[in-house]
Specification:
By secondary structure, the chain is mainly alpha-helical. 50% of the residues lie in helices and 6% in strands.
C-alpha cells in the first residue's frame, strides 16, 4: 500500500469517526427535543387534572376515579422520557450515579461527587479497523510496500 493510500485510508477513517460523533450529537439533540415535548404534554395534563378536579369539586362530585386515564397517560410520558434519557446516556458513554444522580463517565468505579461505588457497565463495542500487516524486509526489518520488488532501505530483493 502506498503512502498516499495509507494517508487516504487514515483520512477516511477519521471522517467516518467524525460523522459517527456528529450523528450521535444530532440524535442527542432530537432526544432532548422529544423530552421537552413529553414534558409539555405532562404539563397540559396537569392543567386538565386541576381544572377537572375544581369543576368536580364545584359540582360536589366524587373525584377519585375521574383521573385514572390522565394519570396513566402521565405514566406513559414519564416512561418515554426515562427511555430517551437512557439513550442519551448511552450515546454520550455516561451513566448516572444511583446515590447522588451525578452524570459520570461509563468506566468510572467511584462517583467523583459522593464517592459511591459504581456498577460496572460495559460500553457498546466500537468497530475497530484492523491494520493490514505490512511486509518487512528479511535483511533490515524495514517496512516494504506491497508491490515493491526491492527494499528501499537496504536494496535487498524481496522474496
Amino acid at each position: 500500500m502506498s503512502m498516499f493510500e495509507n494517508f487516504t485510508k487514515k483520512v477516511t477513517d477519521t471522517a467516518k469517526a467524525a460523522a459517527r460523533k456528529s450523528s450521535d450529537l444530532v440524535e442527542v439533540t432530537k432526544l432532548n427535543m422529544s423530552i421537552g415535548t413529553e414534558e409539555d404534554k405532562i404539563e397540559k395534563l396537569y392543567l386538565e387534572i386541576g381544572k377537572t378536579i375544581y369543576e368536580s369539586y364545584a359540582k360536589d362530585e366524587n373525584i377519585d376515579d375521574l383521573f385514572v386515564e390522565k394519570c396513566k397517560q402521565i405514566d406513559s410520558y414519564n416512561n418515554n422520557i426515562k427511555e430517551m434519557r437512557k439513550k442519551i446516556l448511552e450515546l454520550k458513554n455516561e451513566k448516572i450515579c444511583p446515590n447522588c444522580r451525578e452524570e459520570l463517565e461509563i468506566d468510572v468505579l467511584y462517583c467523583s461527587k459522593c464517592g459511591a461505588k459504581q456498577e460496572i457497565i460495559e460500553p457498546e463495542a466500537e468497530v475497530i479497523l484492523e491494520e493490514v500487516p505490512q511486509k518487512l524486509c528479511l535483511n533490515c526489518n524495514s517496512p516494504i510496500e506491497e508491490d515493491s520488488l526491492f527494499c528501499t532501505k537496504c536494496g535487498t530483493k524481496v522474496e
